[in-house]
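Encode chain A's predicted structure.
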Amino acid sequence: MKIEKRLCASVVDAIKALYGQEVPESMVQLQKTKKEFEGHLTLVVFPFLRMSKKGPEQTAQEIGEYLKSNSPELIAAFNAVKGFLNLVIASDCWIELLDSINSDPKFGFTNATEDSKLVMIEYSSPNTNKPLHLGHVRNNLLGNALANIVAANGNKVVKTNIVNDRGIHICKSMLAWLKYGNGETPETSGKKGDHLVGDYYVAFDKHYKAEVKELMEKFLAEGMNEEQAKAKAEAESPLMQEAREMLRKWEANDPEVRALWKKMNEWVYAGFNETYKEMGVSFDKIYYESETYLEGKDKVQEGLDKGFFYRKEDGSVWADLTAEGLDHKLLLRGDGTSVYMTQDIGTAKLRFQDFPINKMIYVVGNEQNYHFQVLSILLDKLGFEWGKDLVHFSYGMVELPEGKMKSREGTVVDADDLMESMIETAKETSAELGKLDGLTKEESDSISRIVGLGALKYFILKVDARKNMTFNPKESIDFNGNTGPFIQYTYARIQSVMRKATESGIVIPEKLATGIQLSNKEEDLIQLMADFATVVRQAGTDYNPSVIANYTYDLVKEYNQFYHDYSILREENEQVKIFRLALSVNVGKIINEAMGLLGIDVPERM
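Encoded structure for chain A:
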């Protein structure tokens, strides 16, 4: 913010002139003036008391008088409260600041250069045995927003996805389809491929539970207690044994099993791609666990050869992390099959070969906190430069007002159904409020889609990612309060004002007229707009998209109060009218940029 830079220099001059001492600009502490006092910026005076050898209030008063006398173009007024000097910035400074925001089409963003760091962000990580659900929605929206924010801070970004396309859970869907599917396909069923395969995952669980129940009754009758009967029934379930056998055949490259696996996975990928497109997320590179787990086995073997890991009598391979305050971690099972950790090590190896990564961010739920603590140590031991500094962007679970979801039981909230119902709800709500009157069906459908998906995305992203959250569809589509539709409606309102201004032949000049006396509300708005650059930096440093969301709501709330209290197009003073239009168009620009970082579209009309 240029005003703060100018003010710092003026304070340094004041200290030298008043107390004869040179001080660095880093000693000048400025903060936003508290609402209850008059002023825009407050200087903390305490660091200068040893130079002035006077009390806090007298020192503040002397500095204030010096600034007002020597920098009248910067300071209009001041008041001293104990050791705090509240400064009122001159109106012309705010107009010049608005000029600089107006002249920068990507205000608040830093462009990447050839020397910028490369940050890789992994998100989504679906399994190919079921469609994406509400938990995946939060993951994808956070990953996508994080990638946009990291890029806006001047980094090169690669967005990646690791697809869990192998393992026992995949075999369960495959086996159920073979047994109960009668050759059903997405084409014959009219279902998306991921939904079809997910149905067979649920079918497997249903039949498996029935088998376990039957076996348990038999074992209980033989005199076992409930715990013993359950363990024996689960171990001896013919269906589970068949699934395990199918996994062994897959790992042995059995041609029939591999062909079925390939066919069913392709159905799923076609379904995923539709969901990603509707959600507005994309990836630069997709990795598949089926291609990375063998690489992981090689790296584990390398660690074993170097003495980092050890083998137990049953043939399983482990890492001893007790020196790091953790426990022993399994890396390969006794039968040689890999675990998630093996896959993550293999994926890391491939990524490091593919890209010159400076930082790696994993967007994964907080139930995996321990996993990533271990992964970081193992990657560091195996020689990955970024292993020690990998970032686990850990987020909380998302639930519905009704409670938790379980995919095995088919009680998850499907991502496709959720997005469709949000668009439908937006259509109904907009129609009730008369917001789609006079539009063609195509226009109203487009707006309903933008509003419905915007409501979903904003409701999820405004919550600090680290917290568990409850997603309430009804609350999210509200045209008042801290919601996506409220922000979108304000943007559309600004575009409506600007269209009318254009029709009247009004053009906003590169330099606005100075000498206009601004209201407190107008000055506060410009000060809040100027904060956008700091907010983008903070969101990037803290990996926190909610900072952007809540800043945007504050800006929109402030603008709506201004819009309510002041005339824009009906303002008689031409220079004031043009200033207010410039103010409006730049608030609109920042809303568009901020919502874009969150992956949310804004409609031109509503």
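The chain has 22 helices and 14 strands.
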